[in-house]
Amino acid sequence: MDGQLCTENWVGRVAVVAASGDLDMLTAPQLRDAVQAALAKDPTGLIVDLTSVEFLGSAGMQVLMETHNQTDGAQTRFAVVADGPATSRPLKITGIADLIDLFSSLDDALGNLTA
Questions:
Q1: CA distance 7 to 52
Q2: What are the structural domains of the chain?
Q3: pLDDT tens, residue order, the chain (115 aa)
Q4: Bridge-partner residues for 103, per DSSP?
Q5: CB atoms within 10 A of CB 12
Q6: How many Å apart are CA 14 and CA 21, to the nearest integer?
């Protein structure tokens, strides 16, 4: 099994959790854990970077919505980087893109959250 990897990087007080590979029911808990670990450090912003994700399943989208709901009204701003048919398309089809801040590049997301 090619396990999905999540990495955590910081740009100032903004946490960037990057996922790669397939984001499905088997790997979504890893993303959830990585997001919760980053949020526990009280960032001003949290970016989930899906640039290297090849498949985004409903379980992965559920983690994004949970994170949106958790950060909504909180001090932490939340954004998602998704570009391409594997990630941005399912987010748009399901309407999730209407609810979360979606960016096509990490630079755009960082520029928005650090401004």
A1: 11
A2: 6-114 (3.30.750.24)
A3: 345 589 999 999 999 999 999 999 999 999 999 999 999 999 999 999 999 999 999 999 999 999 999 998 888 999 999 998 999 999 999 999 999 999 999 999 999 998 7
A4: 81
A5: 11
A6: 23
Three-state SS string across the chain, please? CCCCCEEEEEECCEEEEEEEEEECCCCHHHHHHHHHHHHCCCCCEEEEEEEEEEEECHHHHHHHHHHHHHHCCCCCEEEEECCCCCCHHHHHHCCHHHCCEEECCHHHHHHHHHC
User: Tell me, what amino acid is at 63?
Assistant: V
Length of the chain: 115
